[in-house]
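Continued from yesterday's entry.
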Amino acid sequence: MGNKFGMFIHWGIYALTEYQEQYRGRKGIPREEYRKLMQQFNPSEYDPEEWVEMAYQAGMRYICFTTKHHDGFCMWETKHTDFNIMNTPYGKDVLKMLAKACEERGMLLSLYYSIPDWDHPNSYNEKSTHQFPLSGSEHPDIELYREYVKNQITELLTGYGKIYTLFWDISPRINDSSVNELVRKLQPDILINNRGYDEGDFSTPEREVPEGQRFERMTEACQSVGEQSWGYRKNEDYYTSKFIMYSIDKIMAMGGSYLLNVGPMANGRIDDRSAAIVKRIGSWYIQVREALEDTQPALDMPAPQGCIPVRMNDAIYLHFYRELPSCGVTLRPLKHIPQSVVVLNNMQPVHCEIAEMPDKWDMETLHAKEPYLHLTNLPVEELAGEPIILKIINK
């Protein structure tokens, strides 16, 4: 997995509630009452080509789609439960439509699958989390339910073309390597996350930015445009694009991929606020993407506080994943002028000098400390809304 930027999409019948994806669990809605939402779901404005184009224009190169969330509703034509998209007024396989749109645009497709299932009578697992309380009508059976999972995964991995990654959600806390063995048998090149029946191939920090300079393991971080939900919420508290961009910059400079989530409305459209955030982030991302994708650590480069240096061929990129406090940076112990330094965000040349800095004064000798490379007049005010990345070419 080369580190990539992707779009996460949480969409299901819960969009009708305009609350969030865990509506049934958070509100304690009985199974039969929640199932009635299926009869109201008719996303007549669903346009997968529009979703894919929005993602592509933002620099994203894969889409991860929620085939089944915790509520158990399936967004594809499955033979193993009637609680699926084909039994709605819409009556079309939205996943098949999305897969076709991705293939036509050259977009990779990943699939999300929730292991908890609040609709299936055998699914309750006391070892795990995100379980709906038992009402007396269920028949918990971990083995039977695991067969159901395998049957559905087989459908998903044989009917929708090449799948890039599989995003299990909520570990069952049961180790069974046969599940991922099946996955790899069906899709030999697939990458699997660490939330399933074993550790899989990659880690998935959610809504957090870990400390450090480089991930030790393949990593895909995920964040939503909204603070309160992943599925559509009418009165969402949206993150600022600045907040998300700083998160993307740090994760990708550390060598990770990044999934940014939107939750389409019940009619199938992505709301204007979410779309605007994706567009704003995309304009920054496309400008600086050479510093984000397929880079290597620049271990020989000084790293000021709040900065990660990476390398690509002859270029070194300084990622300032925290907001710069001033318009200057001193790179100790460098003592030579690079061939060129530009602000990658807008390609503005940066003034370089070898200078003694007044704040580095030796009180014992009463002399300034050694001169080092000083980069000054950085456009911190003009670029206050996004992470600054400097591109350095050495002689």
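--- second protein ---
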Amino acid sequence: MTDRAVLLDVDGTLVNSNDAHARAWTEALAEAGCIVPFDRIREQIGKGGDKLLPEVSAIQPNSDAGKQISKRRSEILRERYLPHIEPFPGVRSLLERMREDGLHLVVTTSAQEEEARQLLRVAGVEDLIERVVSGDDVENSKPDPDIIAVALKQAGIDARDAFMLGDTPYDVAAASKASVACIALRSGGWSKQALHGAVAIFDDVSDLLEHYADSPLDEHNRPTRVGG
């Protein structure tokens, strides 16, 4: 059997953290005197700070102000919200099923690595992950395909033998640009219409686990190839 991999997003996919990220950004920006509505930031969650910050403000991520806001956002997330973030039901069972099928599990997230590892511990699945590719490893975050390209290279997996599992339109777009089939979950708060382009859409990890045998993850249901 050809080696296959699943490239896993974390926020909104494995753990219910998208709102927490949006609140942390909202509060960090407000402390810096930049008032941005929660909903405006929430729709950008899934991108890294390099994309989100200039999208919702006039602040560049590499400026002194941008670095301070990003640092403060991380502190707020860790201190105020991390203790209350919970995994979605069925996460460990789904990842164990993937491992039993011989799938390599690689995290591909726009978050910082330490943040991602904290959330993997929250999800109780850190021991099932072979490697973590984060926003720290690339210059451009999702929806650019850089994180996916690095993950495939590190894992030694061809794009045709990989799936992206994510919850945002930015996951779908990044996967498409990298010619990787994306399985999307609605647990991050996006509609089926917003997730257009995914090869399959499920409500959440429990829904995917329940219909695993009929999903693209099953060897017999593999899509041929995704256009770049």
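The radius of gyration is 17 Å. The longest strand covers residues 103-108. Will compare against the first tomorrow.
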